[in-house]
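Q: My labmate handed me this sequence with no annotations at all. I'd like to see what the chain might look like in three dimensions before we decide whether it's worth expressing. Could you predict it?
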Amino acid sequence: MLDIPLKVLIVDPSDSSAEMLAQAMKGLSKTVLSVKYASALSEAQKILADSDINAIYIDPLSLGIKVASEFIFDVRKRLPSIVFVLYLDFTQMERNRTEFYSGERRRLAHYFKLDKLTPIATFTDELKTIIKQCQSDLSYILTQEKISKLQDELISIQTKTSTEVASIPIKILQDIQEQLESLKARQHEKQPDVKPKSVFLSYRFAEYEYVDGLRTLLEREGFSIVTGQDSNTFISQAILERIKACEFFVCLMTHAEEKKDGTYTPSPWLLEEKGAALAMGKRIVLMVEEGVNDIGGLQGDWQRIHFTSKSFTKAAIKAVDQLKSYIG
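A: Here is what I predict for the chain of 328 residues:
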């Protein structure tokens, strides 16, 4: 992926939310070259005509979903090298989901999205993740443009007469073909391999006493540890990217909410993180405190290690052994 600097246009009638986003972007000067702001679509059109923009962060709900989506699709048609991010309130979007994704707007389901209600503590990490997605998309677009140009060059050569073709050095033809093959291969490259022996550790941050010991054991065995942030209220794009980049997933499910029958449920975001890890095909170890149930399905009993406060050290050693068995 090319590290393409972003030249951003924020289109949002809310000065406060636009300012919050702009300030966060200004702190990322290595990846964001410039930030412009428009409070209305007419103003945005003028900026696009006069400025070099390659990324637009837009709130289609506040601007009006019908006119905003028309603006988005028109710009995408005229200026396909611009990437869009829907910068909006996810809760409001879900509340109006049927209308939001109606008709042609179903395409918006595949657009990058940034939640305006992202906690302040995690907003910058979330923004960095979205920026990387934008850079990846722009890199793909530029690659496509280069491929098209090279293919046009080949077609032009192929339509020449045999005499004209004979006058073209073989090296030029070989270079064009090699560049084409290289660019096409880049398009089909897999995501970068995850770091060997990396573990995403999912837990309630109140459980630091448990986690400190488990972390020490894992690090002694050569595992590197990745965690979420100290604001466990939702599973963000940044967290999903961290899970994706790790080879293994360990979830520490402790008592959260007590039920009427005296058993407990784990924290809901741990279930979400576990679900994401399963969907990504990660190798998982679940450490479940006695009394916790409703931990979700799709994992075998052999992946589940139960513990109490007295038996945690023994359970942690079993968890490390389970991870080591995955390695072979």
